[in-house]
Amino acid sequence: MRTRRLALTSCTALFLPLAAQADSINVFNWSDYIAPDTLERFTEATGIAVTYDVFDSNDTLQARLMAGSSGFDVVVPTDFAMQRQIGAGLHQPLDKDLLPNLEHMDPELMALVAAFDPDNAHGVIYKWGTTGIGYNAAAVAERLGEDYTVDSWAILFDPEKAALFEDCGIAMLDSHTDMLPPAMNFLGLDPNSSDEDAFAAAAELLLSVRPHVRYFHSSQYITDLANGEICLAVGWSGDVLQAADRAEDAGRGIEIGYAIPNEGAALWFDMLLIPADAPNPEGAHAFINFMMDPEIAAANTNYVMYPTANAGAHEFIDPDVLNDPMIFPSDEAKAGFWTLRPYDQRTDRVATRTWTRVRTGQ
Ligand code: N2P
User: Fold this and answer.
1) Which of 131, 110, 40 is nearest to 272 (CA)?
2) To test the ligand 1 pocket, which listed residue (28, 30, 178) has its Cβ within 8 A of the most ligand atoms?
3) Is the N or C terminus of the chain more exposed, i.e. has fewer CB atoms within 10 Å?
4) Is the pLDDT of residue 179 over 80?
5) Domains plus CATH for the chain?
6) C-alpha separations of 115 from 272, 274, 283 in Å
7) Strand 215-216 relative to strand 266-272: parallel, antiparallel, unpaired?
8) Ligand 1 pocket member 290 (CB < 6 A)
9) Is the pLDDT at 351 greater than 80, yes or no?
């Protein structure tokens, strides 16, 4: 017995480095939002293994956090969702001593998100982007003429135009925070309105084009645009650009474009945060710090085509990506965009109810 115990002890000693590797974190991120080798590189650099799972809706993430004991160490809500979650005590303050790479973050962008998280106490920006229009260039030219430029929500929100695309397929995001504000904006209303009449008007507009919409889903459209299964989508900038890349790689002559409508568009920031009950906060800090490494941030942006808020990363970003105004909009363009403020409980109920009406077509 004694001998065995001794043997076990020496085994343990022998495998100490392995025990260190057994350190692990659980990361819950948006789908299609990371380069394929990033997690491997993190584990190589730190010895921390990553269990990685994905979602495509802030509501899904929030439900998991609210249920408690999610087991997540790092999660990635959008700015307005982060603000609500911090208010509900769902996230822990960051220990900035463990985040030396914070020095690379763009101070202006971090100041912008401080409106949602004073002093940037809980979150750092992972990526940011816009919500706009993905389109199949040939399908648009066939239906609206070679000279038509996609630059307005009208292609989706004007029933006469939308009807032309019913046969080739329209997709919309299954997210009221991404769909109702653009509808309000198109109607000349404040996209941040909490007025019930504004929600009712947005619902009427969306219901008027709903017969032409094939589906509401927040990640399927990447593959479907790339394969020619759909021809128009309300989508997130990087997702549409990934679809464009996939279409090009497939070599079947499908050309996908992304447009930021003239009327305005949402500008949003997705944030890295550590839930209050994270099992491994130290590992979580190591992950967040790693994601702020300029080379890692650049490699991710080059792959997912969402802009980074890491100023240090710019020198490592592919010039085609850095100079593409659909990826990194100009300051002038940014001035015309809105960021969504979190809804109070009443507005949240109105928005959810309105969205159910639109989805179910009633
Ligand atoms: C990544 C989508 C992230 C954008 N596929 C939503 N904020």
Assistant:
1) 110
2) 30
3) N
4) yes
5) 11-129+268-328 (3.40.190.10), 130-267+338-360 (3.40.190.10)
6) 16, 19, 27
7) unpaired
8) no
9) yes
Q: Name the percent of the chain in helix, strand, coil, to the closest 5.
A: 50, 15, 35
33 lines ligand 1 (CB under 6 A): yes
Residues above pLDDT 70, as percent of the chain: 94
Check if the beta carbon of residue 301 is closer than 8 Å to that of residue 128: no
Calculate helix-pair angle for 281-291, 38-46, nearest 10 degrees: 120
- One DSSP character per residue, 207-259 reads HHHGGG--EE-SSHHHHHHHHTS-SEEEEEHHHHHHHHHHHHHHTSS--EEEE
User: Using H for helix, E for strand and C for coil, what is the string for 36-105?
Assistant: CCHHHHHHHHHCCEEEEEEECCHHHHHHHHHHCCCCCCEECCEHHHHHHHHHCCCECCCCHHHCHHHHHE
186 CB within 6 A, ligand 1: no
- Determine if ligand 1 sits within 6 Å of the CB of residue 221: no
pLDDT, residue 19, reads 40
Distance from residue 326's CA to the centre of ligand 1 (Å): 15
Task: Decide if 255 contacts 163 (C-beta within 8 A).
Answer: no
Q: Which atom of ligand 1 is nearest to the CA of 78?
A: 7
Mean pLDDT, rounded, of the chain:
93
Cβ(270) – ligand 1 distance below 6 Å: yes
Q: How far apart are CA 299 and CA 128, in angstroms?
A: 15
pTM for the structure as a whole: 0.92
Q: Please, which pLDDT band fits residue 22 given cuts at 50, 70 and 90? A: low
Distance of alpha carbon 6 from alpha carbon 133, whole angstroms: 66
Q: Which atom, in ligand 1's list, is nearest to the CA of 32? A: 5
Q: Rounded to the nearest 5 degrees, what angle is found at the Cα of 27, between the Cα atoms of 21 and 31?
A: 130
